[in-house]
Amino acid sequence: MVLIFGKLKRRLNFAVTNVINAINFSILYDRTRPEIVDEEKEFHCDQCDKSYTTINSLRSHKVKDCGRDKSYKCTVCLKSFRRKAHAKSHFDNIHRKHM
Protein backbone atom coordinates (compact mmCIF):
# COMPACT_ATOMS: atom_id res chain seq x y z
CA MET A 1 0.00 0.00 0.00
CA VAL A 2 2.81 2.41 0.86
CA LEU A 3 4.58 1.66 -2.44
CA ILE A 4 1.42 2.40 -4.46
CA PHE A 5 0.84 5.64 -2.56
CA GLY A 6 4.45 6.68 -3.22
CA LYS A 7 4.04 6.12 -6.97
CA LEU A 8 0.79 8.07 -7.04
CA LYS A 9 2.38 10.90 -5.08
CA ARG A 10 5.32 11.07 -7.55
CA ARG A 11 2.93 11.09 -10.53
CA LEU A 12 0.85 13.83 -8.96
CA ASN A 13 3.95 15.91 -8.20
CA PHE A 14 5.13 15.44 -11.78
CA ALA A 15 1.73 16.50 -13.18
CA VAL A 16 1.52 19.55 -10.91
CA THR A 17 5.09 20.56 -11.83
CA ASN A 18 4.23 20.32 -15.54
CA VAL A 19 1.17 22.52 -15.09
CA ILE A 20 3.14 25.11 -13.11
CA ASN A 21 5.90 25.14 -15.76
CA ALA A 22 3.33 25.60 -18.54
CA ILE A 23 1.71 28.50 -16.68
CA ASN A 24 5.08 30.15 -16.02
CA PHE A 25 6.09 29.74 -19.67
CA SER A 26 2.85 31.29 -20.92
CA ILE A 27 3.26 34.23 -18.53
CA LEU A 28 6.86 34.84 -19.56
CA TYR A 29 6.23 34.60 -23.30
CA ASP A 30 2.75 36.07 -23.58
CA ARG A 31 3.00 38.49 -26.50
CA THR A 32 -0.19 40.29 -25.47
CA ARG A 33 1.33 41.76 -22.33
CA PRO A 34 1.66 45.55 -22.69
CA GLU A 35 5.30 45.68 -21.64
CA ILE A 36 6.21 43.32 -24.49
CA VAL A 37 3.89 44.76 -27.14
CA ASP A 38 4.96 48.32 -26.44
CA GLU A 39 8.64 47.41 -26.31
CA GLU A 40 10.75 49.70 -28.48
CA LYS A 41 11.90 48.05 -31.69
CA GLU A 42 15.35 49.52 -32.02
CA PHE A 43 16.70 47.48 -34.96
CA HIS A 44 15.44 48.88 -38.27
CA CYS A 45 15.92 47.43 -41.74
CA ASP A 46 17.63 49.92 -44.05
CA GLN A 47 15.85 48.49 -47.13
CA CYS A 48 12.23 48.46 -45.95
CA ASP A 49 10.07 49.82 -43.13
CA LYS A 50 10.29 46.78 -40.82
CA SER A 51 11.81 46.95 -37.35
CA TYR A 52 12.72 44.32 -34.77
CA THR A 53 13.45 44.00 -31.07
CA THR A 54 16.58 41.87 -31.55
CA ILE A 55 19.53 42.09 -33.93
CA ASN A 56 19.16 38.40 -34.75
CA SER A 57 15.59 38.92 -35.96
CA LEU A 58 16.78 41.76 -38.19
CA ARG A 59 19.60 39.61 -39.59
CA SER A 60 17.20 36.76 -40.31
CA HIS A 61 14.83 39.18 -42.04
CA LYS A 62 17.62 40.54 -44.23
CA VAL A 63 18.83 37.08 -45.26
CA LYS A 64 15.49 35.30 -45.69
CA ASP A 65 12.82 37.91 -46.45
CA CYS A 66 13.86 41.42 -47.41
CA GLY A 67 13.81 42.11 -51.11
CA ARG A 68 12.78 38.58 -52.05
CA ASP A 69 9.81 37.81 -54.25
CA LYS A 70 7.03 35.60 -52.98
CA SER A 71 8.05 32.73 -55.22
CA TYR A 72 6.41 29.85 -53.35
CA LYS A 73 2.71 29.37 -54.04
CA CYS A 74 0.13 27.17 -52.40
CA THR A 75 -1.05 24.61 -54.94
CA VAL A 76 -4.66 24.86 -53.72
CA CYS A 77 -5.41 28.55 -53.16
CA LEU A 78 -2.36 30.11 -54.88
CA LYS A 79 -1.44 32.22 -51.85
CA SER A 80 2.20 33.33 -52.14
CA PHE A 81 5.03 32.97 -49.63
CA ARG A 82 8.67 34.05 -49.46
CA ARG A 83 9.76 30.84 -47.72
CA LYS A 84 9.10 27.27 -48.78
CA ALA A 85 8.59 26.23 -45.15
CA HIS A 86 5.83 28.82 -44.73
CA ALA A 87 4.03 27.56 -47.85
CA LYS A 88 4.28 23.99 -46.58
CA SER A 89 2.98 24.84 -43.09
CA HIS A 90 0.13 26.85 -44.66
CA PHE A 91 -0.83 23.85 -46.79
CA ASP A 92 -0.57 21.45 -43.85
CA ASN A 93 -2.56 23.66 -41.45
CA ILE A 94 -5.23 24.96 -43.83
CA HIS A 95 -5.77 22.50 -46.67
CA ARG A 96 -4.60 19.08 -45.47
CA LYS A 97 -7.43 19.02 -42.89
CA HIS A 98 -9.97 18.98 -45.70
CA MET A 99 -8.41 16.16 -47.71
From TrEMBL:
Residues 43-70, 72-99 form the C2H2-type domain. The keyword Transmembrane helix does not apply. GO terms for molecular function: DNA binding; zinc ion binding. Belongs to the snail C2H2-type zinc-finger protein family. InterPro entries: Snail/Krueppel_Znf, Znf_C2H2_sf, Znf_C2H2_type. SUPFAM superfamilies: beta-beta-alpha zinc fingers. SMART domains: ZnF_C2H2. Keywords: DNA-binding, Metal-binding, Nucleus, Repeat, Zinc, Zinc-finger. GO terms for cellular component: nucleus. Gene3D superfamilies: Classic Zinc Finger (3.30.160.60). This is C2H2-type domain-containing protein. It is found in: Nucleus. The keyword Metal-binding applies. The lineage of its organism: Eukaryota, Metazoa, Ecdysozoa, Arthropoda, Hexapoda. It comes from Cryptolaemus montrouzieri.
